[in-house]
């Protein structure tokens, strides 16, 4: 009898990548693989990578180097690198890391089981490499396989994700991106925008709800530009919000330009759509936005914010900001701080510009690139301003009573961690049996970023089957 092969998937990066990790697990499980919880227990290790910033890539390369040590105990172990960095580096990664057996970009996952079989059979046309064995003896390694075709027809239809959370589910509705923001590698590693079929999406959401999960987050690189025939994103969002059993719907990340009145109306009208919007601004200066090719101005961004806030009172807003884009002057950076003060985001994800080979921004004049110490101090200033605003907003929310979906045990034993509809994190004393249920929680204090609270209801242990309106 042959032993069941076991796969371990380790994911880095954004929610789309986490969702892709679940997809790879689902694809392998459907082909008879078991899923291992630790790399030591696996016959196949896949490191699912992100390419958005250099820092993320460096971390992953270190981790892959560490995992190769497991091959000493298990010579048949297959080590693969998947995802955006695999796509970006391709054959170069295979050459630099000869212990990697498979390099596969995001459009290759459908053929993952076949690719692993080919690696095992040595049925690979690519280069042969010799690397020293851990003992110091030279050991001949098998050939490496790289799967890097960008497939514009790949819409991931019919592939099943392995969902690990009993509480909330990610649902990718779109892959790739048709924008060309000049700093961004995504369009090059994930290809053009590909949208999934609405009925398939709704079927998937119905299945998720039938399994007792009540919160879904729709995912896409520019999720609100999703369109299919006469279906707009707003229509899809309304339909998802009305799937029986679904009690909370979120979506990320929208592009400000596609935040339409129709969409905001659906957000305001559908009780299941949460009062939360992540709206990446990237910068608060028109010249920078223009050179980023974001296709909006500070004024039009602010108009979108106003439109959303008018329709959805108490809307919680978050954003992404990049500092030190090449050519950003000190005054232009100050404009970004001004945008933060004007909008007063509840949360901000802040980044230093990271040069990504092959993107248009790399061709800007070298003398415009902002030195790292300047970039670092801008980042620190931005974080200080963003945190200050966040702390003020959150201090003003202490005393509120909120519906919290319990996600997991908090680090503090005897405490639970959950989120409000407005995506605020709350820790409160409670029993693990309440994970997956909704509790009514009074917010008693804040650290600035998160809240502590006290449940003010009796609670219903393990209420995984909670449905809207109960
Ligand atoms: N450098 C820094 N940040 C980047 N992002 C995307 N590309 C880069 C880059 N080259 C940020 C953007 C995006 C978020 C997911 O990552 O803010 O919204
Ligand atoms: Fe990158 Fe811009 Fe597309 Fe977002 S919209 S994935 S930032 S190119």
UniProtKB/TrEMBL annotation:
Compartment list: Cytoplasm
Binding site for [4Fe-4S] cluster 1: 14, 50, 84
Record bears the keyword Zinc-finger: no
Main location: cytoplasm
Keywords: 4Fe-4S, Cytoplasm, Iron, Iron-sulfur, Metal-binding, S-adenosyl-L-methionine, Transferase, tRNA processing
UniProt record similarity statement: Belongs to the methylthiotransferase family. MiaB subfamily.
Name of the protein this chain belongs to: tRNA-2-methylthio-N(6)-dimethylallyladenosine synthase
Primary gene name: miaB
């Amino acid at each position: 009898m042959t032993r069941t092969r076991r796969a371990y998937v380790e994911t880095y990066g954004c929610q789309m990548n986490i969702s892709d990790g679940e997809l790879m697990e689902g694809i392998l499980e459907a082909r008879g693989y078991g899923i291992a919880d630790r790399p030591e227990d696996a016959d196949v290790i896949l490191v699912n990578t992100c390419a958005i910033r250099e820092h993320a890539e460096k971390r992953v390369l270190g981790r892959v180097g560490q995992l190769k040590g497991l091959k000493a105990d298990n010579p048949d172990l297959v080590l693969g690198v998947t995802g955006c960095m695999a796509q970006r580096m391709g054959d170069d990664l295979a050459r630099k890391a000869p212990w990697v057996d498979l390099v596969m970009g995001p459009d290759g996952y459908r053929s993952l089981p076949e690719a692993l079989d080919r690696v095992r059979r040595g049925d690979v046309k690519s280069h042969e490499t010799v690397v020293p064995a851990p003992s110091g003896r030279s050991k001949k390694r098998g050939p490496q396989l790289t799967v890097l075709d960008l497939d514009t027809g790949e819409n991931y239809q019919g592939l099943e994700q392995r969902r690990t959370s009993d509480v909330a589910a990610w649902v990718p509705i779109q892959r790739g991106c048709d924008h060309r923001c000049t700093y961004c590698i995504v369009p090059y590693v994930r290809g053009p925008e590909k949208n999934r079929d609405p009925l398939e999406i709704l079927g998937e959401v119905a299945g998720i709800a039938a399994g007792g999960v009540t919160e879904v987050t729709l995912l896409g690189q520019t999720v609100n530009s999703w369109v299919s025939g006469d279906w707009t994103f707003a229509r899809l969002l309304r339909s998802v919000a009305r799937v029986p059993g679904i009690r909370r719907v979120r979506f990320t990340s929208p592009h400000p330009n596609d935040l339409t009145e129709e969409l905001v109306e659906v957000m305001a009208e559908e009780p299941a759509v949460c009062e939360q919007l992540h709206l990446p601004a990237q910068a608060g200066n028109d010249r920078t936005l223009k050179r980023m090719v974001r296709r909006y101005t500070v004024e039009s961004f602010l108009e979108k914010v106003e439109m959303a806030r008018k329709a959805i009172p108490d809307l919680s807003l978050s954003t992404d900001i990049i500092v030190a884009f090449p050519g950003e002057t000190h005054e232009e950076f100050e404009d970004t701080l001004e945008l933060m003060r004007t909008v007063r985001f509840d949360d901000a994800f802040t980044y230093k510009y990271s040069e990504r080979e092959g993107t248009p921004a790399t061709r800007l004049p070298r003398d415009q690139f902002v030195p790292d110490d300047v970039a670092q101090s801008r980042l620190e200033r931005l974080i200080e301003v963003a945190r200050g605003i966040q702390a003020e907003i959150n201090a003003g929310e202490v005393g509120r009573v909120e519906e919290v979906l319990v996600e997991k045990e908090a680090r503090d034993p005897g405490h639970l961690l959950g989120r409000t509809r407005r995506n605020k994190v709350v820790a409160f004393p409670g029993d693990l049996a309440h994970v997956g249920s909704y509790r009514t929680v009074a917010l008693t204090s804040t650290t600035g970023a998160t809240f502590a609270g006290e449940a003010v209801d009796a609670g219903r242990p393990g209420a995984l089957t909670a449905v809207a309106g109960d």
